[in-house]
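Posting this for the archive.
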Amino acid sequence: MGKFEFTGINHLALVSSDMARTVEFYEGVLGMPLVKTIELGGGAGQHFFFDCGNGDSLAFFWFPDAPPAVPGVSAPAHRPDQGPITTAHGSMNHVAFGVPADKIDDYVEVLRAAGVDCTEVANHDNSEWGISREVTDDVYVRSIYFTDPDGISLEMAAWTRELGPDDVSHTPRTAVDATR
């Protein structure tokens, strides 16, 4: 183990344009219990926390003076099945929630029944384009993509196999690589 003993993600903090709508989506549609609410001092806003499983939380700030989102900069302009997902350096591209592998196929219909526009289940593998039509031994995760009311990109992801040393095989790219 490294210098620190990590126990997971305590919380990921995002920014909401309408906290009531955020509560309705995350608690009402996705079923994540609202576990803590904070009014920031001096009228600076709110900070709310939702339980997203295993002791982890997804949190939202609401700032009365926050600038609007800029799709393609602060968040992807598209879902992966609809166009480029590139975002700016330092941005948050998407949040992936772990779900049981044996339930992910059913979750497409659950999301759609709640009025959420989502992808079909994507079977991620090690092929050139990273997607398989079928679930094969090479598929390592299955995903559904959708967005919240603020356009935050979300994913439900189910690991299909244990990852091992062979799953780490690429040399990290640098800023210099982007200019070539």
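The domain at 68-164 is CATH 3.10.180 (2,3-Dihydroxybiphenyl 1,2-Dioxygenase; domain 1). Strands lie at 11-16, 34-40, 45-53, 56-62, 95-98, 122-124, 131-132, 141-147, 153-159.
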